[in-house]
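Support case: user asked for a sample of complex input and structure output to validate their parser. Sending the pair below.
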Amino acid sequence: MSRRGAELLVQALEREGVEHVFGYPGGAIMPVYDALLNSRLKHILTRHEQGAALAADAYARVTGRPGVCMATSGPGATNLVTGIANAYMDSVPLVAITGQVPTPVMGTDAFQEVDVFGITMPIVKHSFLVRRVEDIARTVALAFHIATDGRPGPVLIDLPKDVANTETDVPPVIELRRHQRHQPDPAQLAIARELVAAAERPVLYGGGGIPIAGAVDAFRVYAATSGIPVVTTLKGLGSVPTRDAGFLGMLGMHGNRAANRAVQECDLLICVGARFDDRATGKLSGFAPKAKVIHMDADASEIGKLRHADAGLHGDLLSSLAALPAQLSIQPWRAWCAERKVEHAWRYDAPGEFIYVPDMLRRISAAAPDLLFACDVGQHQMWVAQHCHFQRPEQHLTSAGLGTMGYGIPAGIGACLARPNARVLTVTGDGSIMMNIQELATLRRYGIPLKILLVDNASLGMVRQWQELFHAERYSEVDLSDNPDFVEVARSFGIPAFRITRRDEVEGAIATLLGSEGPMLAHVCIDPRSNVWPLVPPGQTNDVMMEERFA
Amino acid sequence: MIHTLHLSLHKVEGAVIRALGLIERRGFSVTAMHARTDDAAQQMELTIQFQSAGRSPEVLARQIEKLFDVRHVSLVKESGVALKESFAC
């Protein structure tokens, strides 16, 4: 039976189990959009291609399956780039499909021609430029395989229009053998066992690789049975329930002081699916200075990249965790860590009249323990990480590596579609929301019941904070006091919205927001001078944490 | 310090640029290169000399090894001793 390339592509997506595709049509990808009309795939029309890529990213994080986005050539393709980079930095399986100008005019500066294959090369796990219709089915199968195999990441398929329109008799079915998980080296495991057995002050340092590897339960079991205190990165939050007694908090620049102190004091750091990112380590040469290191990762190139590993366990985290000894004599160390946790517990008795966002977030988290948070980027992102509680990692969607302002609303859309029965809250700022505010139209179009908490300090808060602290209060281009009326903007998109400005309105606002049926936006006006504390200044070790001045 | 990498790549679109781009993005500079195509095997052989300002060439070799088009990587010291050798599955 003869089929067009575009039909082969759509059938290949169906075969991969894809249910939702996020995208935006245009000239070069019109054959694919035509084929979609005969498909069971549900296409979600975002209002900007970046929104499609970021929604697909969040969809992948929640489902554990590759998210799929598509766009046309030229500007459609370049608008996907930030979303692809976001997925690359956070190791998210994403398949991005772009239309391309017909092969006879490629390389001639044709209308809406751009070399997206070349542009995205540094930010994809792999990419394909499909020049023959016979290669489409195999390319899609390979793309899904590569996106999910080992350390996940984004894969680009660039499909010229003439290839999409060509007919072929090649069958659409391609079977690929799945790779086995790599097993850790027995010799390195033996070293790791000796290190654990000898340690007096061990710390588990968990990262985003734990949920990616499907190792959350194994990590929890090992943490519970060994009693080793746990710290996590931003992406690792929820790898153990954040209310667990042994959890000390997030480490790093805006981490909890107890977490940072434990890492700085430990004699063994067991890094599980983390990568010694600079926001976590501070000044690298002073990070965990007394510790030997066991580094477990699915990606061999992460081991030893930034910090020497005394034992490098490349491969399956489940196998590595199961092989470590759990009967340890570390009671004095556990007691010391527990004391630090009490000593450095968050305080919510902020003076003043303005709404105190950490306290509001804490209350939201307590009122809805199952809530799934989709964060934007900035001060509010750090407040969510510090003050909300997570039972599972996928409850916390955040742009960690790339720090993409504008992630929040598309991520919330992706999460709502991935888990239709979940309650999802986007926490955003007045800077971030303006980067993808057009996606309010997507909420409205599909009736997506996303709640939005807009924290408005009328400025680019994190940049303003750094200018205050590290640039002698020389404020440069951070004033956003000319923001639009966000309540009116939301209403103009058909989204109910309300505003609060006082502390005594917080409780009612939480009830209204979480109790509403459909989408809703709460506009929360706060003190423009609010800062995120504590803070490890850039270039300093995690011993040096600046504290809130009123405390 | 000058290091040498021997790479075998699948002869597919973008494979060479992907490998060279990775080397430069990771903070190394290419000082010499030789390439040879084996059309029958659909393979390309690259010998690349590069220098680093303190970053680990072994980590670089592992990063290159991850590229989907790479069949084989070997890292050679100035003395000619293979530091690391790997074959893709």
